[in-house]
Amino acid sequence: MSAREREYQTSIVVEYQNLFSIARDEYFEDGIESDFSTELAKLFQRDGHQAVDIIANLLNDKHVNPEVVGETLRCIGEIENADTHLQRRLLLENSLRHSSPIVRDRAGLGLASMDDPAAIPALEQAIAREQIVQLREDLQQVLDQLIATQAEQN
Amino acid sequence: MPFLLRKVTRPKWYPLPWLADGEFQADAFVDLRTRDNKLSVWQVDDERKNLTRLITALAANGNKPDNLDYALLDLQVIQAIGITIATVNGDTPDKAANMWHRDLVELSAARLFDLARAIHQHGSIERIPKKQIIGLIHQSIEAGHFEVSDLKPDLANKLRLSTND
Predict the structure, then answer these.
(1) Edge-to-edge strands, sheet with B3-8
(2) Which of A32, A131, A145 sits opposite B131 (nearest CB)?
(3) Where are the domains of chain B?
């Protein structure tokens, strides 16, 4: 990679970092598109696979607010892009192991949006290890949906 | 006895492991954001016959299809706290549902805390999944509860609805 390419890569990552930083103060509400998710969707459209990689790294940053992580995961699930489908699904599945309950819930909602029965095993495992009863119920709701989708497809 | 419904975010009411018995998350107050010391709620009849229509109206008021989380609390519990309830028309695409809107008024910080505690102790907090919400919005349009043109353009686009539907 040339110095110019490296510089460009760094500037993209900074762009995402800034967006995540600003989002800390935003209020997220179900059913309402947030400014953050609108901007994130635009970046995603521009960067594709690279966006998922950058986001995956940012989600591991302990300084990122769990609510922002959660909104990111919902956005990841809502994006309609076949090329990155697998990469996005795996990111959501991995996030089912996150230490924050709201992040685990949002990962489940992201998977519900993707509606891909391939996520069934990961959800079953997440439900088996989940300690919070209400969150287990919410994940079970997603699992039931994906099982129904699978039955429709067969 | 009827119920009052408030749109919430279910994870903010999860009983997290570090909470003591009877405690709830401080983040729950984000779901009870007041304006002019008022809180917007919706009345559900005692047999919950208007619940589905109300939920659909609330979901149809957004700009994207999404799950809808709500807290349901017995009206009697709210009255016992001493909270005053005012009838004020709501603002959803469903005109009939708008008549079920109420404002909890003259809320002090102490009463708001009592309300949050009552929701935690006596309320039920439910989630309607996004896929079901999408079906409900389509059904409401077919039933004539509201028209596609009443929806926000972003929501109509995401539901792939046009004004000819």
Answers:
(1) B84-87, B101-105, B39-44, B3-8, B68-74, B124-128
(2) A145
(3) 3-158
DSSP run (H or E) holding B39: strand B39-44
Predicted TM-score of the model (pTM): 0.94
Out of A31, A115, A141, whose CB is closest to B127? A141
Render pLDDT for B110-140 as a digit per residue (tens, 0 to 9): 999 999 999 999 999 999 999 999 999 999 9
Instruction: Count interface pairs A-B at CB distance under 8 A.
Output: 61
Q: Binning pLDDT at 50, 70 and 90, where does residue B153 land?
A: very high
A33 vs B7, B11, B154: nearest CB: B154
Please tell me what DSSP assigns to residue A32. S
Residue A9 touches partner B, C-beta closer than 8 Å? no
For A30, the closest chain B residue by CA position comes to: B66
Please state, in angstroms and rounded to a whole number, the distance separating the CA atoms of residues B145 and B57. 9
Q: Tell me, which fold does domain A3-153 have in CATH?
A: Leucine-rich Repeat Variant (1.25.10)
